[in-house]
């Protein structure tokens, strides 16, 4: 029967892969939270990690690495499970705190990539400005996790976070207060395409997978105008691996989060049309987050 072939040849192997990733997430949470676990369960968890070839790597993670990887696994799995329940979703309108917080934790992976790879690739005096009290625009600030991580990386950084989704902003206020960063992180309710700031920011982050194609060009124009001369912007989009299935899933993830599918080269062309100079595509060889970065600069003469 065709249904049997579908179940045995396609669904079951993929379900096993999903459960293996869930096992990785479970192991990371157990490492993070501790507690007593049934010894037989531990044996079976370790067996899956051994089959994946990652048990030694997981055991060597420090608490910060454990939290970041757990955020990535949990965030993507929660969104995938939600998609089964709500298959028509094409916008970022989640209200469940677990999904919002997990997405935020996933975004903290970007802080290390910015600091070690993307910022150095931008050149100029940006790194110096970030050390000396720069201003950062966090578009789609969500629960504030990336803003908090960047404030910890650069102790004099000031942040303006913009987001239209009140359930996320409510959690962001709590997270920022818990971190004691209310005086450095300003939250605004609104959409990036309506941003009115001019020549205010040294650096901006724009996750394009949350921005629809209908407003993307306007959003690029507003971010460009909001940058100080020689200020830089980082536009993120999901990596599209060479594997056809993984590429198709990445494109689907973009659409169900409300974004429009573009190649990095197409995004780079849009940046140039919006007035950005020194446009570049930055790929993390370590793939610490499943994101590719398209960067651009506002010219000093603008």
What does this structure look like?
With 302 residues, the protein is of the alpha/beta class. The protein folds into two domains: 2-88, no CATH class; 102-297, Rossmann fold. Helix content is 55%, strand content 16%. The protein is built from twelve helices and seven strands. Strands 3-2-1-4-5-7-6 form a seven-stranded mixed beta sheet, with helices on both faces. Helix 10 links the parallel strand 4 (201-207) and strand 5. Helix 1 (2-33) packs across helix 2 and helix 4 (63-85) crosses helix 5. The longest helix is centred in the N-terminal third of the chain and has 32 residues, at 2-33. The chain is globular. It starts with a helix and ends in a 5-residue tail after the last strand. The mean pLDDT is 93.
Short account of what is shown:
With 302 residues, the protein is an alpha/beta fold. Helices cover 55% and strands 16% of the residues. The protein has helices spanning 2-33, 39-52, 55-59, 63-85, 97-107, 109-122, 126-131, 145-153, 166-179, 213-226, 244-256, 264-273; strands spanning 135-139, 158-163, 185-189, 201-207, 227-238, 277-282, 291-297.
CATH architecture of the largest domain: 3-Layer(aba) Sandwich
The number of distinct structural domains comes to 2
Question: For the record, what CATH class of the largest domain applies?
Answer: Alpha Beta
Q: What is the CATH homologous superfamily assignment of the largest domain?
A: Vaccinia Virus protein VP39
| Beta strand % | 15-25%
On the 0 to 100 scale, the average pLDDT is 93
Portion of residues within helices: 40-55%
Order of helices and strands: HHHHHHHEHEHEEHEHHEE
- What is the CATH topology assignment of the largest domain? Rossmann fold
Ranges where pLDDT stays below 50 over 5 or more residues in a row are: none
């Amino acid at each position: 029967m065709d249904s049997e072939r579908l179940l045995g040849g396609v669904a079951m192997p993929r379900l096993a892969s999903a459960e293996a990733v869930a096992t990785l997430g479970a192991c990371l949470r157990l490492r993070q939270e501790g507690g007593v676990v049934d010894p037989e369960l531990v044996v079976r968890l370790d067996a899956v990690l051994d089959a994946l070839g990652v048990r030694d790597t997981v055991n060597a993670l420090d608490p910060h690495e454990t939290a970041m990887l757990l955020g990535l696994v949990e965030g993507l799995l929660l969104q995938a499970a939600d998609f089964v329940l709500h298959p028509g979703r094409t916008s970022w309108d989640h209200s469940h705190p677990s999904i919002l917080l997990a997405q935020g934790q996933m975004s903290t992976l970007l802080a290390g990539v910015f600091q070690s790879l993307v910022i150095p690739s931008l050149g100029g005096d940006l790194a110096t400005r970030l050390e000396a009290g720069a201003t950062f625009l966090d578009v789609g600030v969500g629960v504030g996790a990336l803003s908090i991580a960047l404030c910890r990386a650069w102790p004099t950084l000031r942040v303006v976070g913009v987001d239209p989704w009140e359930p996320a902003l409510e959690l962001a206020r709590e997270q920022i207060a818990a971190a004691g960063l209310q005086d450095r992180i300003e939250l605004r309710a609104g959409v990036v395409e309506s941003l009115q700031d001019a020549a205010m920011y040294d650096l901006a982050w724009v996750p394009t997978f949350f921005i629809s194609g209908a407003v993307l060009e306007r959003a690029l124009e507003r971010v460009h105008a909001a940058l100080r001369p020689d200020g830089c912007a980082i536009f993120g989009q999901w990596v599209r691996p060479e594997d056809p299935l993984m590429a198709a899933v990445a494109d689907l993830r973009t659409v169900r989060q409300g974004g429009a599918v573009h190649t990095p080269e197409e995004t780079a062309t849009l940046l140039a049309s919006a007035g950005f100079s020194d446009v570049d595509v930055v790929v993390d060889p370590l793939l610490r987050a499943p994101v590719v970065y398209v960067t651009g600069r506002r010219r000093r003469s603008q």
